[in-house]
Structure formats: C-alpha cells, structure tokens
Amino acid sequence: MKKDLKSLSNEELRERHNELAVLMGYDSDNCFTSSYNRRFRQRQKIIDELRARSAIDVLLPNLRHEEPWVRCLSASICWDVAPGEAETTLEELAQEPYATVGIQARSSLGWRRDGFINRPLPAKPRTA
C-alpha cells in the first residue's frame, strides 16, 4: 500500500526519489518512454512535496551518489539551493559522450545556463 507523500519523512522522500531516478535511468537507456514519463510525474510530486516543506536540501547528498542518474536528476533540482555543486555535478556527468545520462546532464546545464528552467511558462492559447 502506498503511503501519502505528506506522511513520509524527508529522508523517506529522498529514498523514493532515488529509487525513481534509478528506474528513470533504466527507462531512458532502454527507450521506455511511457514508463519514464510515468515515473517523471511521480518524481515531480516528491519534488513538489519537498519544495512545500522547504526541504530540497535533503537531496544535496545525492550529488555524490554512486548512481549517475541519481546525481544527475538531483543536481537539476538542487541548482536553486547549491548552484555551484549542482553545476559541477552536471559538468562531470556531461563528459559521458554516448550515455543517456550525459545527454540529460548536458541538456540540464544548457537549460539552467540559458535561464529556460527558471522562466515562467507561457500562457496556454485560448481555443475557440
């Protein structure tokens, strides 16, 4: 039975985030788009809960995690609380030229450096 995210501790949320990051890496490496997207949405709910608690910093130890996907996906979220460490982590991962984690790291770096991630989303066009 799944626990409500609000009932989980910050550490339990971090552990769940890490499990999803590993699975998302597997999905990405194997082009399993639908399961990657499903896990992405689940992970986003965890991130939203951590942000609501002002507890994103619970992910900071992940910047040194042994699993590359955990480091990569954590760094993209930790940028706001530790930009230097997050950028360094993404730069290291971006050195993997043929791995999907390297592609993700390079994309995250570009989006962050260009300010794309921090821009508000455009309003949806009205339909008739």
The CATH homologous superfamily is called: Phosphatidylinositol 3-kinase, accessory domain (PIK)
Enter the CATH topology name.
Serine Threonine Protein Phosphatase 5, Tetratricopeptide repeat
Radius of gyration, taken over Cα atoms and rounded to an integer in Å: 15 Å
Low-confidence stretches: 119-124
Instruction: Describe the global form.
Output: globular
Number of domains: 1
* End-to-end Cα distance: 43 Å
CATH classification class: Mainly Alpha
Structural class: mainly alpha
Helix content, binned percent? 55-70%
Describe this structure in words.
The longest helix has 20 residues, at 10-29. The chain is an all-alpha fold and 128 residues long. The chain is built from 5 helices and no strands. The protein has one domain (7-113): Serine Threonine Protein Phosphatase 5, Tetratricopeptide repeat (Alpha Horseshoe), CATH 1.25.40. It has helices spanning 10-29, 33-52, 68-78, 83-93, 100-113. 59% of the residues lie in helices and 0% in strands. It is globular and about 40 Å long.
Features:
single chain, 128 residues, mainly alpha, Serine Threonine Protein Phosphatase 5, Tetratricopeptide repeat, 59% helix, globular
Blueprint of the fold:
Elements: H1 10-29, H2 33-52, H3 68-78, H4 83-93, H5 100-113
